[in-house]
Amino acid sequence: MTRNRGKRIRKPAQSQVLGRDAGNGHLEFRLEAFSPDGSEGHLPEGTRLEDLPTKFCAAPECKNGKDLKKCSRCKSAMYCSSACQKRDWPNHKAQCLLNVTQAASFGGFDNEPPLQRHLRHFTARFEGSLTCAAIVALGICHDFANAGRKALVIALTPRAHEHPGARFLVRSVTVMTMTQLETFMHILEPAGGAATLAQHQLERAKIRERHSGAKDFTAALLYATGGEGEGMAMRFKPICVDRAMAASPAFRDETLDWETTLRIQVERDMPARAT
Ligand SMILES: [Zn+2]
Ligand SMILES: [Zn+2]
């Protein structure tokens, strides 16, 4: 068992089912086993992020970069096959419309800067980890209404890694109220921040109605500063939360250090998965 500041990090030996989706019965969130040394996939020191290819299939488990076709709705996410697109749809659905809004801020996806592209892959790959972290950090496990009150704000540092979805490390994590988030997004992105948040509130109303309050979207804002000339990338991520799943006793375990768990999952490229 690994120790950190006296707090227990999730048991590394096996994956743990945290909850079951009440709707379809087959969505399980797992904190995957950590690899023993976590060195897998690291690229030689000195490898620059901007030298690595940026176009890959958007399905979290796929590294294919050939024969990609764009999602016909948002023209953002690209897939190597219809099988990958189908598999990713539950994750992509909420993001699809937001993609259109967010793309407007950099002039459409054909102009998407490389750093932004890496960030998009990272956000898709770590969806499960972000969900688990948000449920604990925002107190959604205690009061489901917290899903709409606060958001996770995550600062990232680029790192060279073999997997296109693993090219960042967590620099800091902050919890903000939605009002603070709005101000913060306005500073980072005066053009698109407000529209993105308005779209988010619309999607929240829809999903709550469709599932009679059993599901909601909470939010994470991820941003990264790149190397010279790369500027900054920011991505707003709606996170689907399920009332039954959020109520899982595993999330209320006082010894669970969500921030360290998130950092380790990102560092070792071991995302928590919805299976
Ligand atoms: Zn694929
Ligand atoms: Zn799409």
Summarize the SSE layout with pairings.
Blueprint: E1 3-4, E2 7-8, E3 16-20, E4 28-31, E5 69-70, E6 78-79, H1 82-103, H2 114-125, H3 127-137, E7 150-158, E8 168-177, H4 178-188, H5 193-210, E9 215-225, E10 232-242, H6 243-246, H7 258-267, E11 273-274
Parallel strand pairs: 7-9
Antiparallel strand pairs: 1-2, 3-4, 4-11, 5-6, 7-8, 9-10
Bound molecules: zinc ion (ZN) (2 copies).
Region (Disordered): 1-22
Pfam family, one: zf-MYND
Biased composition (Basic residues): 1-11
Q: Can you offer a commentary on this structure?
A:
The protein is α+β, with helices and mostly antiparallel strands and 275 residues long. The protein has one domain. It has seven helices and eleven strands. A hairpin with a 7-residue loop joins strand 5 and strand 6. Helix 1 crosses helix 5 (193-210) and helix 3 (127-137) packs antiparallel against helix 7 (258-267). The radius of gyration is 18 Å and the shape is globular. Mean pLDDT is 80; it is low at 1-36. One zinc ion is lined by residues 57, 59, 62, 64, 79-81, 84. Keywords: Metal-binding, Zinc, Zinc-finger. InterPro entries: Znf_MYND (IPR002893). Pfam families: zf-MYND. Residues 1-11 have a biased composition (Basic residues).
A few lines on this structure:
By secondary structure, the protein is of the alpha+beta class. The chain has one domain.
* Number of self-contained structural domains: 1
Portion of residues in beta strands equals: 15-25%
Helix/strand/pairing class, anyone?
A: alpha+beta
State the major sheet. Answer: 4 strands, mixed
Bound molecules: zinc ion
Q: Number of helical segments?
A: 7
Strand order of the largest sheet: 8-7-9-10
Number of strands: 11
Order of helices and strands: EEEEEEHHHEEHHEEHHE
- The stretches of 5 or more residues where confidence is low (pLDDT under 50) are 1-36
Mean of the pLDDT scores?
A: 80
Fraction in helix: 25-40%
- Rg to the nearest angstrom? 18 Å
Distance between the termini: 25 Å
Large-scale geometry: globular
Biased composition (Basic residues): 1-11
Keywords: Metal-binding, Zinc, Zinc-finger
Region (Disordered): 1-22
GO molecular function: zinc ion binding
